[in-house]
Design brief:
Porin, two-stranded antiparallel sheet, 45% strand, 14-stranded antiparallel beta barrel, mainly beta, globular
Length: 388
């Protein structure tokens, strides 16, 4: 039983650290940031995944609810669907995850929304199937299978504001059950997102800049088993920009985008043999909401270490258009982090196609030799989106 417990906890840590592109070390000598519910910060949609996991400022589409719901307030009804009243959109997402580590680990997501008069609202469901674990007694005799899983259900509301800006708020319920020996966790968290559409008032422009920001998983600290040992929710700050260019007479579009990401949890402090803090700040004195502000000043090595905790996602997308409507997409991206905070880097590739109101996106991750655990990761997204 102890071995099963260690496996579940170790697996949770590996997943958590990977969600922000970081590698686990037993003593955490590089003071890697750790938070609960890592599946909340995974990238589910194939379009963003193909762009090195950037997506805060890219153009609105049916996947926007997963990365930045504020973008949905700028959707425009397509000609084929102009007669529909209050049209809705929906997207489905699937990822076989960590295929080189364990079989049966998958990510699923559903995003559905409705649009009306520069407002949008909808629901997002995320499900992380962490695989089955065999439960055996002290004599090694099989007793039962345990299904490790986490899921969340979130609602959001987005509204278009003045000066081509939009804002969204969201509330989510999170459930986590990763170990047979620890009771499941139930918590609530909130999201705040912002988006600026640089083209909304410049329909004839040949270039424009979009930008945005999100602050997600805002909530109190949680406890998996021992109420005295509380873990921070994975509050994540993302800042993004996307520069767009129109090319040629067919109005093809080239987009270049970049996101900067920072997990807003305290940097682990340095402690002596008596567990006394000798450098950094005591994490127990920081609240779940307070970490949004205080986490910036917790690194033992100061601002230099804090800046190392940023990860960067960047990508490019070429939209092949016919009659002013994009029908085919080619994408590539790159993800990177500081070598002292995990040193994970990988390339991504992807394709997309749209036929009338339906779209399909695919992405593939190309990892280096040091990150073989990520090899063969692909994502698929299918959507119905009567918007342009």
């Amino acid at each position: 039983m102890k071995n099963i417990f260690r496996f579940c906890v170790g697996l949770s840590l590996i997943i958590n650290l990977q969600s922000i592109g970081q590698v686990y070390t037993p003593v955490n000598s590089h003071r890697v940031l750790v938070g609960a519910f890592p599946f909340q910060n995974f990238t589910y949609d194939a379009r963003s995944a193909a762009l090195g996991e950037a997506g805060i400022a890219i153009s609105p589409d049916a996947n926007s609810g997963l990365m930045n719901p504020a973008k949905l307030a700028f959707l425009n009804v397509s000609k084929d669907s102009s007669k529909k009243e209050n049209p809705f959109g929906i997207s489905l997402h699937y990822t076989p995850y960590y295929r080189n580590l364990i079989q049966g680990m998958n990510l699923y997501a559903l995003n559905t929304f409705k649009f009306k008069n520069n407002h949008a609202y909808g629901l997002i469901a995320k499900y992380f199937d962490a695989g089955n674990v065999e439960i055996r007694n002290q004599k090694g005799i099989f007793q039962r299978n345990f299904a490790s899983k986490e899921f969340s259900i979130a609602g959001f509301y987005a509204k278009q504001l003045k000066h081509n800006n939009s804002f969204s708020v969201g509330l989510k319920y999170i459930y986590s059950d990763l170990s047979a020996t620890i009771k499941p966790v139930n918590v609530f968290a909130g999201d705040l997102c912002f988006y600026h559409d640089g083209r909304e008032k410049k329909r004839n422009a040949t270039r424009w800049l979009n930008y945005g920001a999100s602050l997600t998983n805002i909530g109190g600290r949680v406890s998996y088993d021992d109420y005295k040992k509380r873990t921070f929710q994975p509050t994540l700050l993302k800042l993004g920009a996307a520069q767009n260019f129109i090319l040629g007479k067919k109005q093809n579009i080239l987009m270049l985008t970049i996101d900067a990401n920072k997990l807003l949890v305290p940097t682990p402090s340095i402690r002596n043999a008596k567990n006394e803090v000798i450098a950094g700040k005591n994490e127990e004195n920081i609240t779940g909401i307070g970490t949004i502000f205080q986490s910036w000043a917790t690194a033992p090595d100061g601002l230099r270490e804090t800046m190392r905790e940023f990860t960067f996602s960047m990508g490019s997308e070429f939209q092949f258009r016919a009659g002013g409507v994009p029908h085919f997409y080619a994408r590539a991206g790159y993800y990177t982090q500081n070598k002292r905070k995990g040193d994970i880097h990988y390339f991504t590739l992807g394709l997309g196609a749209k036929f009338k109101d339906f779209g399909l996106d695919l992405s593939y991750l190309i990892s280096n030799n040091r990150n073989e655990i990520l090899s063969n990761t692909f994502r698929a997204s299918l959507n119905y989106c009567p918007f342009k």
